[in-house]
């Protein structure tokens, strides 16, 4: 389980501080790691530990504390969502996409997971000296196409260049803002017992697409990233079932890390049905070759939706009528048992706990 930081005299302190440490007015929380490791970027336990012990205690406020895909707030009666993300994927070009459309789609999707209609984006580029100009142009063109597809405008940005050898080609940060229509109330803490959990298609595609390039794997059918803007799908879903409780895109850490976060935040149990979780044979085979658990592999064009049982079939039909939801499936439900945990009924009839990712399966995946 993640250890949540406590307070002492208004200062955030970690539960596992070492004895004999003298505390000043703003102490550095003592963690199990004395340096940043790759797993701190996995979206799993170490990422959560980094946020909970070091970042959140210093900046906590009512908008940040929910740790949703974006902050939601109102200005002059308009409800808005605001999100930011950074992209350090390696390689920068991969089957089905590149770092450019990934950056646009990633922030568009974070806004969509708040139930917002994305409006405007910023983009900041950190470029390494020596990065080929034709490759940068290819990334820019890809971003333009992705923004056009998503119906969002890039309105501001920044560019920095670092010395040769001090970066890795290109890093991109994007921030976005969108508007939430009246009556939409999507939040991870709204998950309630009985909710059905729906995914819009096969999992683990993005992570395996990138890993197959890194490892030089070739398959009879190319595995291409599922990166895509999900805002159109979300609007179709909201038109069919306005009271969707939770939306999340299971990127880093895969579907189980994402569901573990929701279970912990909402103080509910989640039970998955392994036989109902869609996965292609190519991805399943690649995971077996690479020794990866597909439940923890990153996705980029997938979402998880929580909805009341009476609306689940209606929502499922609406999703399947949309191109990005044709293979949507109900994969589990919210239960009373084991609050804060995710369990899974296996194909052979047993039950096992599926915990949040604790290490780094696939570094620099997004």
From TrEMBL:
Pfam families: AIRS, AIRS_C. This is Hydrogenase expression/formation protein HypE. It comes from the Bacteria. GO terms for biological process: protein maturation. The lineage of its organism: Bacteria, Pseudomonadati, Verrucomicrobiota, Pedosphaerae, Pedosphaerales. Residues 68-180 form the PurM-like N-terminal domain. InterPro entries: HypE (IPR011854), PurM-like_C_dom (IPR010918), PurM-like_C_sf (IPR036676), PurM-like_N (IPR016188), PurM-like_N_sf (IPR036921). Belongs to the HypE family. Residues 192-343 form the PurM-like C-terminal domain. It comes from Pedosphaera parvula (strain Ellin514).
């Amino acid at each position: 389980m993640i250890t949540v930081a406590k307070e002492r005299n208004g200062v955030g302190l970690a539960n596992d501080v070492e004895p004999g440490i003298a505390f000043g007015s703003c102490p550095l929380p003592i963690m199990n790691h004395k340096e940043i490791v790759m797993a701190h970027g996995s979206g799993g336990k170490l990422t959560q530990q980094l946020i909970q012990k070091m970042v959140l205690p210093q900046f906590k406020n009512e908008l940040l504390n929910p740790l949703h895909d974006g902050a939601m707030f109102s200005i002059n009666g308009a409800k808005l969502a605001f999100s930011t993300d950074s992209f350090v994927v390696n390689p920068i070009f991969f089957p089905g996409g590149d770092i450019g459309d990934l950056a646009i789609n990633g922030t568009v999707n974070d806004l969509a997971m708040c139930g917002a209609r994305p409006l405007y984006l910023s983009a900041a580029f950190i470029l390494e000296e020596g990065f080929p100009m034709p490759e940068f142009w290819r990334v820019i063109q890809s971003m333009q196409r992705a923004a056009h597809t998503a119906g969002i405008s890039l309105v501001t940005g920044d560019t920095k260049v670092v010395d040769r050898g001090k970066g890795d080609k290109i890093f991109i940060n994007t921030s976005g803002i969108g508007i939430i229509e009246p009556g939409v109330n999507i939040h991870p803490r709204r998950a309630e017992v009985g909710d059905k959990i729906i995914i819009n298609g096969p999992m683990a595609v993005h992570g395996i697409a990138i890993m197959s390039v890194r490892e030089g794997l070739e398959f009879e059918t190319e595995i291409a990233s599922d990166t895509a803007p999900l805002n159109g799908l979300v609007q179709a879903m909201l038109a069919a079932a306005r009271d969707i409780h939770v939306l999340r895109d299971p990127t880093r850490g895969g579907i189980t890390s994402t569901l573990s976060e929701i279970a912990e935040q909402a103080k509910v149990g989640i039970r998955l049905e392994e036989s109902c979780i869609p996965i292609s044979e190519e991805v399943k085979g690649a995971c077996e070759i690479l020794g990866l658990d597909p439940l923890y592999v990153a996705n980029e064009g997938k979402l998880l939706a929580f909805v009341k049982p009476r609306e689940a079939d209606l929502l499922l039909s609406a999703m399947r009528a949309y191109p990005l939801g044709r293979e949507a499936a109900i994969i589990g439900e919210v239960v009373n048992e084991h609050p804060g945990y995710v369990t899974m009924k296996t194909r052979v009839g047993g039950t096992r706990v599926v915990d949040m990712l604790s290490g780094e399966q696939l570094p620099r995946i997004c």
